[in-house]
Amino acid sequence: MVLGNVEQLIDQASRSGATVLDLSVNNLTELPPEIVQLTNLQTLDLSHNNLTELPPEIVQLTNLQGLNLGGNNLTELPPEIGQLSKLHDLMIWGNRLTTLPTEILALQLTKFDARQNPLTNPPAQIAAKGISEIRRWFDLSHGDEGWVRRSSLSSVIHQRRSIWACVETVIMV
Asked: Are 26 and 50 in contact (CB under 8 A)?
């Protein structure tokens, strides 16, 4: 679809106060800036396009509850995504994401799909288990001890066990 047609759809949605907008399968390479006019928008489907980035201005869609970004070419999500306080469905499957911003942990997501991404932070096998496992991974790798991100959950657990074994030995001496 030609960008002008997408802009027309956005304009129509803005004038009608639309709460749902489906811009999937439009070969979009960028999100038109006019999208921020859609303050009533609750569901936005941008799947199956060629988006490489999501602009931070997405945060202006304060009523957004569902966001489908699946099947694009995104390499990162803006940290501002964590400010979408009403967002509960986030589909980011099939992109090129290697990392997820910790800010997504602020969201109360009920549906989350990050499959088919080359994730390393958190690892893809953790992300595939859903948002609660991602929270647990970030908690373990960023705990009170100032842990840095690890390449796997098992290495974090092993290192913590080793530290506690050393602490117990020192206390006993």
From this structure: no
